[in-house]
């Protein structure tokens, strides 16, 4: 089964080898028929501490690194775009 890849914006890089990424999704409300925006924060593993606040990054599912970290930063951005479009 392929791993999910999400795109979001880094909102915190304070942790050691950890970033917090805000992922926003849009959908049409079933009753109101209005476009609604919902966002969720994901903790992701960043081995090289490469990402900084404000950057748009891709994260993918992985094994649990800790209680809250089950995502990791995708190093090759071009590869992540190809995977997300497929």
UniProtKB/TrEMBL annotation:
Belongs to the universal ribosomal protein uS17 family. HAMAP family: Ribosomal_uS17_B. This is Small ribosomal subunit protein uS17. Pfam families: Ribosomal_S17 (PF00366). The keyword Zinc does not apply. InterPro entries: NA-bd_OB-fold, Ribosomal_uS17, Ribosomal_uS17_bact/chlr. Keywords: Ribonucleoprotein, Ribosomal protein, RNA-binding, rRNA-binding. GO terms for molecular function: rRNA binding; structural constituent of ribosome. SUPFAM superfamilies: Nucleic acid-binding proteins. One of the primary rRNA binding proteins, it binds specifically to the 5'-end of 16S ribosomal RNA. NCBIfam families: PRK05610.1 (NF004123), uS17_bact (TIGR03635). One of its GO terms (cellular component) is cytosolic small ribosomal subunit. It comes from the Bacteria. One of its GO terms (biological process) is translation.
